[in-house]
Design brief:
The structure is a homodimer.
Chain A: H1 3-25, H2 36-53, E1 56-61, E2 68-73, E3 81-87, E4 107-109, E5 112-114, H3 118-138, E6 145-151, H4 161-167, H5 169-172, E7 176-179, E8 191-196, E9 198-207, E10 213-214, H6 225-234, H7 257-263, H8 270-277, H9 290-295, E11 299-308, E12 317-318, E13 321-330, H10 336-349, E14 356-365, E15 368-369, H11 375-388, E16 393-397, H12 402-410, E17 415-417, E18 433-435, H13 437-454
Parallel strand pairs in A: 3-6, 3-7, 7-17, 8-16
Antiparallel strand pairs in A: 1-2, 2-6, 4-5, 5-18, 8-15, 9-13, 9-14, 10-12, 11-13
């Protein structure tokens, strides 16, 4: 970072943080129709902030869902073109009661910004805008060409992004895609994520009697939809945490000794994790470490379950219906549609008696991988070493950013994930927050990254 | 029924129905603290109606919970004393959206009164008050001595009734207890219920991580409380619907050929029931009929389940907690506390890893039985034959009225259940209703019953 850029960022820091707070204050929950107006507000706000940073061709582009915000600066001929992806939508704030301060009234405590969307993805996304601003307001130019593509549907699985990318492939063409939307390996351990798990999400609904029945008069004589659901879900895993859906592991590459050796230095302390999460012990698929279970192995997780009476006390009924939301994280060559087909076959085979089962797939994303020795990844490693004072480690993340796979497929360019979040920042949970020291280090890293890319060949 | 009583009832019928509507309109939901004011209102309203009927010593008696309404008429020396029990509290109306007309805005459609509490137990209870009124307003006296004991906590398992009965044992002393709080066997088939199932209700809570976790970052590495709950619940039954809790059936008397022969004429049409309930088929414990499953066999029913995200779409989390409400119907010599101990032992044995399980028992009631040849039952049979034009059948009900067992134990008197409801009246479900023709037939039956009892010895 030049002294000029550095002193600009120091001088403007307070304003930049105020802007992030303003951004987090907008309750841009993409999954809920009641927040549609806030989605629009967030998109407009973001477009404004791109314009103020000095970006050109800024536009709020309509899709079949929430809009995409676009902007670019393309005055570095012969240099690579980077497409920065981020998302301005956030997860629902529920359970709202568990927040120490309201989710959409962001506050800074102990150097951390608290609020829904703080780390996922508003503050991380904002490091990119402020990096561009710092270059343009001081040096008047960027080392490379940069395009922004900021969507509002990441938290609902980006249903309209793939068609959008296809339609706008020319405008969005780039040599690489850069995304900052996840956590680094650990505090003080910067990392570059070279792999993501895929996702196959679905809902099971079980319909029983036309309405709730008195459990004294009908109990024992009519199939209970909750019991049917419980049996069905229980049939999907065995006592060792192994998924029992036939064919589920067929396209999973077994971990080699070499894999295990490579990830050895990253292994985490089980006792520390279980204490942080306040669970009596860690638990998962037999024969694997926590790191392996959460990054290199596929999962089947029940995200929610419901049916019958949930209020105070007890209501002795046979419930009319029950349902569950389930998602599988996928690895290696697992394909979400193939996995969904296997699950449907399993459910068909274990179909409970006396009820009607229906399945609806909601999420599909393929797993993703980029080799750590790719030049754009090596450039990122240098940038992290500069920004964080420490060489990064190469990790696989257990999360899924289906659009990462979509970007690499549709735009045919490598995806570089430069995360500035931290584990434990409660992404998707209550009291989500972001360590503001990484706001500064993130910008420093990006400043260096754009310069590092200058020396590399681009297609543009 | 004398002509005088008969014509009084005909003349006053419209007013009587208006009163029932007024009664059902009071949302006396005992389980919810927000309805406390309505509980008081219902108790006062009921006391007033006892006074207007001509009863004496009417009093709203405080308990540690909702009050008991008492009243008596004791001017038939040498005649038996009957204690009429009923309850003025009702089940919650949820799910409110499924009601065709609002639960607490009672309406009469096609000769049926719709509203929460219509059949359970407001209109049934009211037949007793109007019978007393008809006698006292025409003949100036009752054939027997009658006491009313109307409680407000039946739907929450009568936590304060047993101590109340013990404290007031002298005032409540009676030769028999009469209760109208259930359905008859079928439309046009009056019945006397000689057996009830007991109840053991409890809640299971499973605590996992301190808050909801991102299922990408933690999924597979931390025990999922919903999965743990699902496994635990699934472990309690096998594929044949047989409860697998060790010792659960130890005190259940196996059905004999004689039992099966006796209940043969009562057997129901499976196809008709499943079509009414809109289920593809009936389902229950292997080797038993629907009637046996719902009256003579014990059950384990999940009444409600919850955990994680239940909103629109999918939220990929590992939920922080999960819970279920479960109740067992008990028969023969099964004891709710013994059963609870067996369940605790089972849960202990199947304790899931990585989470914390807690159990809270909420309901306990012993099974009940009275022999059909008891003189008070035979008198009731004559009364039904008069009131409904048809001799009643003797049945066992699958429901639980734990206080029936409490009454017979604490007051040492036989309990006679004279039900005027019908199956399919959606007791506890949406669109609860009561066939008003049975309001008239019920009163006629009670008029005859009090006369029948005159010829029988009492202790008073």
């Amino acid at each position: 970072m030049t002294d000029q850029v550095k002193s600009y960022l120091e001088k403007e820091r307070a304003r930049h943080l105020e802007e992030v707070i303003e951004f987090v204050r907008i309750p841009s929950v993409s999954s809920s129709s009641e927040h549609k107006v806030h989605m629009k507000e967030a998109a407009e706000w973001l477009a404004d902030s791109l314009r103020k940073a000095g970006l050109e061709h800024v536009e709020v582009m309509q899709t079949n869902g929430h809009p995409v915000v676009y902007g670019d600066w393309l005055h570095a001929p012969g240099q690579p073109t980077a497409l920065v992806y981020g998302h301005y939508d956030v997860q629902p704030a529920e359970p709202s009661g568990e927040w120490e301060t309201p989710p959409f009234e962001p506050v800074i405590r102990d150097g951390k910004l608290y609020g829904r969307g703080a780390t996922d993805d508003k503050a991380q996304l904002y490091t990119h805008i402020k990096t561009v601003e710092a270059f343009l307001q001081t040096e008047g130019r960027l080392p490379v060409n940069i395009k922004f593509c900021l969507e509002g549907e990441e938290e609902i699985a980006s249903p309209n992004l793939a068609p959008f990318l296809e339609q706008q492939a020319e405008r969005l063409a780039a040599d690489l895609i850069v995304i900052s939307d996840g956590p680094m390996h650990d505090e003080g351990v910067p990392s570059i994520c070279c792999g993501l798990r895929g996702l196959c999400g679905f809902q099971i609904d079980i319909a029983g009697p036309k309405n709730d029945l008195h459990s004294g008069l009908y109990g024992g004589g009519v199939a209970n939809p909750v019991s049917a659901l419980v049996e069905l879900l229980a049939s999907m895993k065995d006592a060792d945490g192994i998924i029992t859906i036939e064919g589920f592991y067929d396209k999973v590459r077994p971990l080699t000794d070499a894999d295990r050796e490579a990830s050895q230095p990253l292994e985490l302390d089980d006792a520390k994790i279980s204490s942080e999460l306040q669970v009596p012990e860690l638990y998962g698929e037999k024969g694997y470490t926590f790191l392996e279970r959460t990054t290199a192995r596929p999962t089947l997780e029940i995200n929610g379950i419901y049916g019958g009476y949930q209020g105070e006390g007890l209501k002795p009924i046979v419930p009319a219906s029950a349902g569950a939301k389930v998602s599988c994280r996928l690895v290696d060559e697992q394909d979400p549609d193939e996995i969904m087909a296997l699950i449907r076959r399993h459910i068909d085979k274990h179909k409970p008696q006396g009820v009607t089962v229906s399945i609806q797939q909601s999420h599909r994303g393929k797993p993703f991988f980029i080799p750590p020795d790719h030049p754009y990844i090596q450039a990122a490693a240098s940038a992290y070493t500069d920004g964080f004072g420490k060489a990064p480690v190469y990790i696989r993340s257990g999360g899924s950013i289906p659009i990462v796979e979509v970007f690499s497929r549709v735009l045919g360019a490598p995806v570089v994930m430069m995360d500035f979040g931290l584990p434990g920042e409660n992404m998707h949970g209550p009291n989500e927050h972001f360590h503001l020291e990484n706001f500064d280090k993130g910008i420093a890293t990006l400043c260096r990254y754009w310069r590092e890319l200058q020396s590399l060949p681009g297609q543009a």
